[in-house]
Amino acid sequence: MTDTATTGRALPHPEREQIRLESVLHALSDPMRLQIVRELAAEEAELTCSQFDLPVTKSTTTHHFRVLRESGVIRQVYRGTAKMNGLRRDDLEGLFPGLLDSLLAAADRQADRIGDSR
C-alpha cells in the first residue's frame, strides 16, 4: 500500500497482511531504530524526521527510517515538504498482540539498568 501526500509523492508500505515477524524484529534489533520507535511511542503522534536527534549522519538516519517503514513498523507520509512518521501500533498489535508493548517495556528497563535515558 502507498500513501499519496498532497505533493503527489508516495512511499511504499507493506499491507498489514504482508508484515512479517522476522522483519519487525530485525528492524527493532538496531539501537537507533529502537530509539526512533521509543520516541514515536512516547509522543503518540506523528513526528518529522528532523525531530529526532540521532548521533548518525543524515543518510544513515534515512536508512533507519526506510528499514522501519519497509518492515511495517512505521508509516511515513509527506505533508507538504515534511515527511511525517507514525508508529503502526494498531497493525502491529493486531498481528502480534502485546509484542510492541513488551519490547518497549524491555527497552525502558534496559535503559534504566544501563543508565541510557533515551
Automatic annotation (TrEMBL):
Domain HTH arsR-type, chain residue ranges per copy: 13-107
Any matching Pfam family: HTH_20
Entry keywords, A to Z: DNA-binding, Transcription, Transcription regulation
PANTHER family assigned to the protein according to its UniProt record, in alphabetical order: TRANSCRIPTIONAL REGULATOR, ARSR FAMILY, TRANSCRIPTIONAL REGULATORY PROTEIN
Protein name as it appears in the record: ArsR/SmtB family transcription factor
Species whose genome carries this gene: Streptomyces cinerochromogenes
Source species taxonomy: Bacteria, Bacillati, Actinomycetota, Actinomycetes, Kitasatosporales
